[in-house]
Design a protein that fits this description.
This protein is of the alpha/beta class and about 270 residues long. It has a single domain, classed as TIM Barrel (Alpha-Beta Barrel), CATH 3.20.20.370. It is built from 8 helices and 11 strands. A hairpin with a 2-residue loop joins strand 8 and strand 9. The relative contact order is 0.19.
Amino acid sequence: MRYVILRDDDTSALTPVDCLERLYRPFLDRGLPVNLATIPNVATNTRLPDGRLEGFLVARNGTTQETVPLAENAELIAYLKSNMGYEVVQHGYRHDYFEFDRLGTDDVVRRLEQGIRCLNDAGFEQAKTFVAPYDKFSRDSLREVARRFPVLSTGWFELRRLPRTWWPQYLIKKATGSPHWKVRNTALLSHPGCLLSYQRDFKNMLASVAEAVESRRLTVLVTHWWEYFRDGKPDYEFISFLHQTAEYLASKPDIRVIRFSELARGNVALN
């Protein structure tokens, strides 16, 4: 059996319910869970180095608040709670640029704890999984996240960013070529890049997904809801490829799509 975790990044209080429904109804109807990496208290002016607003702010609608906590979007909360196929995981705190790659220990702890409280205030229990904005972690961030979450999902790991006590396990991971590894009670997952992205070749997208899934025991597939609505309008061709992915995953009896929390409970082996 092969396992797939679908991770959609950047849901927040500014995310329109209609966007998630349009994207993920085919997954939910097939019993394929969707893990939403959710920003607890989204910053409304996060910009890329070239000055452009971050893509997940496509629907900020002129808000003047510096941040908007998830609890302020009652419609979104009701939607997520009424569709049990969604699992909310914690995605940073505000999603500032490289938020968890440039902070000292005190700031890391403060943002982690405030993020947990924001999700609690919105009616969700503490997430079992943490995802850093841009998949970027400092050494302090990795250490503090591992103390609070049984699963950490990111793109890759670098020796120079790891706590030194993690180095032996990391070197074993590198020697064995394993995409995932574990430190104490925390599973550390890497993914094969954002294969479901508008920046990819659409013609080869489904083949790339299939190749990744069928070459690993456990694959984290990452996408971003706002990429399908970049100009405030749906990209029908791109959405079609996402829905083809749902068809592919549902059609394979040797593939099971799971939640991060199943991994946290120890129900699925890493490698």
